[in-house]
Design a protein that fits this description.
686 residues, alpha+beta, 5-stranded antiparallel sheet
Amino acid sequence: MKSYLLIVGTLIVVISALITLNVFFQQSLQMDMAEQFNKQQLLLSKSIADSIKTYLYFIKQNVLHLSNMLSKQHIDNKKELHWLTDTSFRKKGIIETSLGIIDNKGSILFFDGDINILRPVIGDISKKAKNLGPNSTTIIETYYTVYIISSVYNMNTVRGIVFLSIKIDDLARNFVSDIKSGTRGYAWIIDKDGTLLYHPTQPGMVGGNIYRAGPDCFKCHVNFDLEKKILEGKAENFGRYIAPSGEDKVIAFSAVSIDNLSWIIAVSAPYSEVTSVTRHSMKLYSYLIISIFITTSIISTLLIVFNKKRIKAEEVAKRKEELEKYAVELENRVNERTAELISEKEKLNTIVSTIGGGIVLLDNRGKIKWSNKKIVEMVGHEIVGMSCEDLCSDCSILFDTKSKDINTAIMSNLFGQKGKYFQVTNAPIKGINNEVHGYIRFIQDVTEIKKMEEQIIHSEKLASIGRLAAGIAHEIGNPLTSIFSFVQILREMEDDEFKKESLETIYFHINRISEILKQLSGFSKMPVGEPKECQINEIIEASTNLIQYDKKAKNINIVKELSPSLPLITIDGNQLSQVFVNLTLNAIDAMPDGGTLTIKSMMRKDNIVIQFKDTGTGIAQEELPKIFDPFYTTKEKGTGLGLAVSYNIIKKMNGTLTVESELGKGTTFIITIPISAPSTERTTRT
């Protein structure tokens, strides 16, 4: 008895376990089947969405083609208009469409549909079309109709608007109405704002909005939480919801997005229908297990179940392997393209950074879209987003924005940098049709080049004057010597006071002419000097000592700020002393009522710099370029040769002599001599 009860109990436990396992397997298999079925629905919704997008793209191309044809016709000529629409586009396509043409004032030129439906949207069509460029289309959606529009251009002017209207209901009937998911499943359409556009079983709900749902909207839905998550992008591509009848349903959806149109194509089916086959099969298996508890049935059932799982696992593994392989290939391609882009960007940045000039990218309105680091350094702040006229008010005058050629101009005092010169090159950026889309401006600091040009011109001028001076000194010198000798003899022999005073006057002026000739001869050949190692500070001290007893220097305070670390330099100290004396005397003459002369010496890179700064009357800006010219002077008794000779001496030492001055604030002469100054320069006096 005990063994019997044990066997019966064991059988009951085994059968209960088998039944429990059967129920568990049934639910698991139903869920798997529902998920697979939902994936098929997802493929179906994607297919519908792709078909609608393809069709709308085809319609857009037709509208664009018609607008291009109309741009070459007279759209006001109704005879040509009807011929063109009848022969090419009217009633063409798998779905009935209505063709319409509006002029640029919003008047209807042609429409083969219900004009009462068209009138409320004419204003919206005109507004949207005017914002379209040539060769472009857009889509306008109402509750019942979709309009594909394109502007008709001629000579960059909108002449009219062409459009095709398609009823949403016609689109749905063609692409959605025949879709069946199982025996009771169907497809429906909702837009991005939550408005129902098509429903095969509830046509009265079309036009309703899930965010403003009324009682009638809950005939097939308990709530719209899932749909709201779909519209808000918070749901997966498929899911489940419960109908008011209590029936569980599965749903999959795909989006149709083209221009301003955004729809959701949803496909749903009852969960019970999806799993009905599974439930019937599992009931049969349960009856067989309960009624026939034999090893063969158990083994067969297990073999079937395990075989299905094996096949499914193999398919899943195969798909997973393919996806992983594709993901690796895609990642490698992305990495390669990213590396190429980074490399090209680095090359471009290196080229732009090493150009040595400022580069600015402008649009057609003169707005700065991009700039390199050099131009930011020139200006002193970031300039992207600014107008070009804010930085250069003269650029709009010098550069014609309608010009399609490259042009260049030299400008001064840009970006508040006085005394500097910039070369500005303006180059248009052209498109495929040779249209100018913007401009590139290359800005280069050419101050040093400009100064070198001025120095070359000045040097050539001095050379010419030197040759002329040598000829004058030679031609006048000989007869002047004879005159000088006879005047001296006559002066010693004459006793008459009047004649003797006259001879004294003649003697004085001949002496003055002689001195002028000596200075003139300096332009052709400088005095003989012996270059040797000199200390600049010692030459400055010696030169200022020469003029300290001059009566004009009594009211002048001479301040010396001399750097003690100046190196020795091999030059002709006598010639350099002549320059220092000339500059000191000029400073004294510029301060007739007294003042301060500051003499500085310093090192600047590989050059020795000497400054003579006075607090005198200063020099006008327009006279500064002329002061080194021979015979140009602002003094009543000056010859105009002192600064010219000084300039020539410094030039022969491979140095520079420049001036900075402002009226009423004084003048500063700056001498720059390289440490490796020429040491073998030789000249002779004529």
